[in-house]
Amino acid sequence: MSTVFDGLNALLLTRRWDHRLRVEGVTLPQLSIMDQLAGGAVMVTEIARSEGINHSVASATVTRLEYLGLVRRERGIEDQRQTFVALTKKGEKTLLRLADLAIADPDHDQE
Fold this sequence. Notes:
Layout: H1 2-24, H2 28-37, E1 42-43, H3 44-51, H4 55-67, E2 71-75, E3 83-87, H5 89-104
Antiparallel strand pairs: 1-3, 2-3
């Protein structure tokens, strides 16, 4: 019984976060990538590897985040063939706002 309740509770929390993310204009996978970029610029290959997705999906997700103005692509300094992805100021603000919402959420310890 407890497992069913926990599952339902998790589902309700997920739906509430889906709504919050929609208000911000991002999806949960996009948020996960943005969170990864909080530590600094990362290559798309590394994003794909850490997210457990293929390179083309990671690249398409980054393109969408770039379109939203939340990330930018940068060429490598030492090797111009490398492309790194970094948060923009807007992306940083969005990520911080969502983090603040998560902390303020009375159920955040249960997630």
